[in-house]
Design goal:
- The chain is α+β, with helices and mostly antiparallel strands.
- The protein has 23 helices and twelve strands.
- A hairpin with a 5-residue loop joins strand 4 and strand 5 (125-130).
Length: 469
């Protein structure tokens, strides 16, 4: 789209969106010196916070984020580390990833950074690749106007409108995420008092909460996740409309909800997030079965144990499996369906597979669980009856299953929750730790009915041998 700003040619042969503002910055700094920095910035103006105040030096950034900003600076563009990475650094945490905001268009970024690609439809971004690290580069977003494409509920559908840094800051969700770090000057640029809100342990939305939630209902989920993760209190003005607007999540694409739910479950604070989701009434749009599960004492204990174990792993720097997490969240609903089907006369294993399909189909209407993850979930569930078979050669075959470890960890959770006898879990723990003759001695006797079935399978079929007269 044509730019509304006149620009200058850059080293990459592009047009920079903004003129050089160095003279303006110098005048602004001189003015601040003479007034002693006693006045607050004017409405809409940014607070420039020097490194002496915030303490973030450029060497604390990832190499890839520094190189991305340097490449864009050399081409004549502005470029800043933005959002969650700046927020986390201010809180003394190590960022999981880095985003960069710039006044270069996606095509301009693509030409500046050799290994990069443009992705996205709703809003185009660039992925800049440096070895294993990927930096997400976004162009400053402009203000929404009457031409912005929205659905009937007000959710923004198409957003490739570029603007100034000030407009971009106003478009971000929370004040704590509207912070820009300039690696060149080591200044933090703050348009919405985000640094002050972080110090006050407050998560405050930018703009009128209802309007912002209509634009993107996922912001309600993000508020819960960030408050739990960062130990912040949601500002009362931002919290008040959440319950009444929770139904807007039904209009969000299932794939986006799945991504946000995954972030929530792997945040290291999943127990607090799930509890607050339920308190705010948001779980209806994500986990429609959660009410049913948590109303069962055994189900609630099982889910909370699973989430607590996951939080512990994440906080110790270990990975968390999405398949395992969703398997634990939905297991007790599978159990309920499984039991009903068996009571109706369905055989044990076919009933289990039918129950698994039913539960995943219901959940799939809300969250777009990928086919691969759904397959892994089913494998974890389908292994559970096999752990009860501890005779003959079956335990050896189960050890060779690719998903054995995940199934075994799931078994331990079931035992911890009191769902199955701990003796079964203890047996499998020991069976893995011994080998040879010790392992063989642990095997239980083959039941008599099983022996009969085996003999019937081995018995040759009756046949009349042909002889010539």
């Amino acid at each position: 789209m044509p730019s509304k700003w006149a620009g200058k040619s850059s080293a990459c042969g592009k047009i920079a969106l903004f003129p050089d503002t160095s003279d303006f910055v110098i005048r602004k700094l001189i003015s601040r010196v003479f007034r002693g920095n006693k006045k607050k910035p004017a409405a809409g103006a940014a607070a420039i916070i020097p490194v002496a105040s915030h303490g973030i030096t450029r060497d604390r950034l990832s190499s890839a984020s520094r190189r991305t900003c340097e490449a864009l600076h050399k081409a004549g563009f502005q470029a800043y580390v933005v959002g969650g990475a700046v927020r986390d650094l201010l809180l003394g945490a190590e960022p999981k990833d880095y985003d960069v905001a710039t006044n270069a268009t996606p095509e301009g970024v693509r030409r500046c950074i050799r290994r990069s690609r443009i992705i996205g439809r709703r809003f185009q971004i660039v992925h800049a690749m440096f070895g294993q690290e990927v930096i997400e580069v976004t162009t400053f977003r402009g203000e929404l106007d009457a031409n912005t494409k929205k659905d009937e509920h007000g959710r923004v559908l198409h957003d490739n409108v570029f603007g100034t840094q000030q407009e971009d800051a106003a478009r971000r969700d929370f004040t704590a995420n509207a912070l820009y770090y300039d690696p060149a000057s080591e200044n933090v640029i703050d348009y919405h008092h985000g640094v002050g809100d972080l110090k006050a342990k407050t998560l405050r939305i930018i703009g009128e909460p209802r309007a912002r939630y209509r634009e993107d209902p996922v912001r309600m989920l993000r508020a819960v996740r960030l408050a739990a993760k960062l130990g912040l209190s949601i500002d009362p003005e931002a919290r008040r409309p959440i319950r009444e607007m929770a139904s807007l999540l039904e209009n969000v694409p299932a794939a986006r909800l799945f991504d946000e739910m995954l972030k929530l479950l792997t945040s290291g604070h999943a127990v607090k997030c799930i509890t607050q989701l339920r308190d705010e009434g948001l779980h209806h749009g994500l986990l429609p079965l959660l009410d049913v599960i948590l109303e069962q004492p055994m189900g609630e204990r099982f889910v909370m144990l699973a989430l607590a174990n996951t939080d512990d792993r994440v906080q110790r720097g270990k990975g968390a499996s999405p398949s395992f997490l969703f398997a634990t969240l939905l297991w007790h609903e599978v159990l309920a369906h499984w039991e009903k089907l068996q009571q109706a006369g369905e055989a044990k294993i076919p009933a289990l597979f039918q129950a698994m399909d039913t539960v995943l189909d219901v959940q799939g209407e809300k969250l777009a669980i990928t086919r691969r993850i759904a397959g892994d979930i089913k494998e974890i569930w389908s292994l559970q009856p096999r752990f009860e078979q501890r005779a003959g050669k079956r335990p050896y075959a189960l050890l060779e299953q690719p998903r054995f470890r995940a199934g075994y960890d799931f078994l331990l959770l079931r035992a911890q929750a009191g769902e199955i006898a701990s003796e079964i879990a203890d047996w499998w723990t020991r069976f893995q730790s011994v080998d040879g003759e010790d392992r063989a001695q642990m095997l239980l006797p083959v039941p008599a009915d099983e022996k009969k079935r085996r003999r019937r399978r081995k018995k040759p079929s009756n046949s009349v041998s042909g002889t010539s007269a």
